């Protein structure tokens, strides 16, 4: 029975790591695209081809940029503009649930890190920042 529990726990951690890895890779790849343009240059066998982007593609790229800004805001909680980057995305009803869920998971992770690390000042400020961000998007 213990083996099953350990196996299920391992699968959950692996699943979270895989989802986070995919998220980071997608977010990083979006940095290279210009979300304000409706064309994308793609290299295909030593020549560049221009690909037209649909409106949906453009909106997806803009969302990716906003998510990257929110990620940077969490990494730098003392920056005065950080809270605005997260709340701007969290107040959009299309993304509220995603952002709030992300913040709750990040808060749980940071609390776990806080209990197991010696350098608690940065983690403590990030925990307070995330709590404030959750309260702010909930009070919209």
How would you characterize this protein structure?
With 140 residues, the chain is mainly alpha-helical. A two-stranded antiparallel sheet has the order 1-2. Helix 3 (82-90) runs parallel beside helix 5 (121-138). It has one domain (33-138). The longest helix has 30 residues, at 2-31. 14% of the residues are buried. The chain is built from 5 helices and 2 strands, in the order H-E-E-H-H-H-H.
Order of helices and strands: HEEHHHH
Number of helices: 5
Beta-strand content estimate: 5-15%
For the largest beta-sheet, the strand count, sense and barrel status come to: 2 strands, antiparallel
Helix content: over 70%
> On the 0-100 scale, what is the average pLDDT?
78
Shape: globular
Strand order of the largest sheet: 1-2
The beta-strand count equals 2
- Tell me the domain tally: 1
**Oligomeric grouping of the chains:** single chain
Span between N and C termini? 46 Å
Structural category = mainly alpha
The low-confidence parts are 1-7, 9-13, 32-36
**What radius of gyration results from the CA coordinates?**
19 Å
Attribute tags:
140 residues; mainly alpha; two-stranded antiparallel sheet; 5 helices; disordered N terminus
SSE layout and pairing:
Blueprint: H1 2-31, E1 39-44, E2 47-52, H2 55-75, H3 82-90, H4 96-115, H5 121-138
Antiparallel strand pairs: 1-2
Please give a quick description of this structure:
A hairpin with a 2-residue loop joins strand 1 (39-44) and strand 2 (47-52). Helix 1 crosses helix 2 (55-75) and helix 4 runs antiparallel to helix 5 (121-138). The protein has one domain (33-138).
């Amino acid at each position: 029975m213990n083996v099953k529990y350990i196996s299920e726990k391992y699968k959950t951690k692996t699943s979270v790591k895989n989802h986070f890895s995919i998220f980071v890779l997608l977010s990083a790849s979006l940095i290279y695209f210009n979300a304000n343009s409706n064309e994308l240059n793609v290299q295909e066998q030593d020549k560049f081809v221009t690909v037209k982007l649909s409106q949906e593609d453009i909106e997806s790229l803009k969302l990716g940029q906003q998510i990257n800004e929110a990620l940077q805001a969490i990494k730098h909680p003392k920056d005065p503009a950080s809270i605005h980057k997260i709340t701007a995305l969290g107040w959009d009803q299309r993304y509220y649930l995603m952002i709030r869920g992300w913040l709750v998971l990040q808060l749980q992770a940071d609390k776990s890190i806080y209990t197991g690390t010696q350098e608690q000042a940065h983690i403590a400020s990030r925990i307070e920042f995330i709590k404030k961000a959750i309260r702010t998007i909930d009070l919209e």
